[in-house]
Design a protein that fits this description.
Number of strands: 5
Structural class: alpha+beta
Distance between the termini: 34 Å
Number of domains: 1
Order of helices and strands: HHHEHHHEHEEE
Radius of gyration: 17 Å
Amino acid sequence: MPKRSLSPLHRATTHWSAGRRILVAAVVITALLGAAGLTAWFTARGGHRKADASPAAPAPSSPAGTAPKPPIGTGAVPAPPKLTDPLAYARAAAVMLWSYDTRTTSRDQHLAGMNAWMTRETKYTDWTAISGQVPDPVLWSRMADNAQYATAAVAEAHFPSAFKQALAENPSAITEAYIYAVTVTGKQAIAWKGGGGGAEDRAVTLAVQCRPSSDCALVSLAPSVAP
């Protein structure tokens, strides 16, 4: 069985709310305009979606418009760790994003588990980008028929150089929402019934929110920037 045809969890998503993109970009990047790689995250604003700034609001629904019903933490998706270091949280989040087990976890359970990692500040959270990494129901069913699962290991995590440089030029830029760009590299191993399997190197840049005295949470996929 071709590995790539049944392992789309690692695909880079290109479809996420323009409103959410602008909000997150404005927080993370407005003061970082000197970093060319990061400014590419800005795009023309489309639509007029109103952002909900209430930090106590629940996480947004799935792309289909219905929040996953299974309880958080079911199946193979681990509960989010209680960490205050954005590098450590990004490492854990990358492992979560690169791992799945169709033998023990339904697609809805997997989405519910992923949702628990998201920031509850709906002004910034970009559930569409994260949930877009999960295969559609038909493909998930095919993967389950073949008992496919993936595990992951992280090699390292770091703040991209453009992010560090721009933040050094304007340290106060981070204090509005405390959203950090973190690039994580590692390896994903995939296996399915009959002894099939393979492995490949992986890399992702995540937007992680770590407010002072609060646990970190996942915001979105961040733009690819210079290492």
